[in-house]
Amino acid sequence: MRIRKAIPQDIPQAVRLAGSLGLDYAGMAADELWVAKEGGRLVGVVALKKQPDCLELCALGVAPERRGRGIARALVEALMAAAPGDVHLATIIPDFFEKCGFKKAGIIPATFPEKRKTVWCEGCDQRLCSVMLRKVS
């Protein structure tokens, strides 16, 4: 498996994979994407979105048949190693992200309450949603 920052040829396939997992969003192709590839096949994706008030990790997903192999964690670590600053995220799986070094955010960026008003967050039980932060060392 190889993890790297997406090159232009990866973008359509990365957005398709995210879409198949219900993780795509408007403008995703313009954000910084990282991909996991196995045998030339794209099997994982994560995005770093520059919000007006923070950096946000979004759209972390792995092809269902490749889950449980550490790909998601490896994608997070690759993104974080290159992140130009602290990274926030909103998640309903905080336990996973705690294992990746994230902690519940004490201060929630203004972007996040506004984000929860979008279609992307529809259907989620917002009581289960945690905003988390990982500081760049």
Write the layout of secondary structure elements.
Elements (H helix, E strand, L loop, with lengths): L1 E4 L5 H10 L11 E7 L2 E10 L4 E8 L8 H12 L4 E5 L2 H6 L3 E2 L6 H5 L14 E5 L3
Parallel strand pairs: 4-5
Antiparallel strand pairs: 1-2, 2-3, 3-4, 5-7, 6-7
Task: Explain what the structure shows.
- The protein is α+β, with helices and mostly antiparallel strands and 137 residues long.
- The protein has one domain (2-134): Gcn5-related N-acetyltransferase (GNAT) (Aminopeptidase, 3-Layer(aba) Sandwich).
- The protein is built from 4 helices and 7 strands; from the N terminus they run βαβββαβαβαβ.
- It has helices at 11-20, 71-82, 94-99, 111-115; strands at residues 2-5, 32-38, 41-50, 55-62, 87-91, 103-104, 130-134.
- It has a 7-stranded mixed beta sheet with strand order 1-2-3-4-5-7-6, sandwiched between helices.
- The radius of gyration is 14 Å and the shape is globular.
- The two termini are 26 Å apart.
- 29% of the residues are buried.
- The model has no long low-confidence stretch (mean pLDDT 91).
Sheet with most strands: strand arrangement: 1-2-3-4-5-7-6
| Average pLDDT, all residues | 91
Total strand segments: 7
Quickly count the domains: 1
Distance from N terminus to C terminus (CA atoms, Å) equals 26 Å
Radius of gyration: 14 Å
Q: What characteristic shape results from the CA principal axes?
A: globular
Number of helices: 4
- The proportion of residues in beta strands is 25-35%
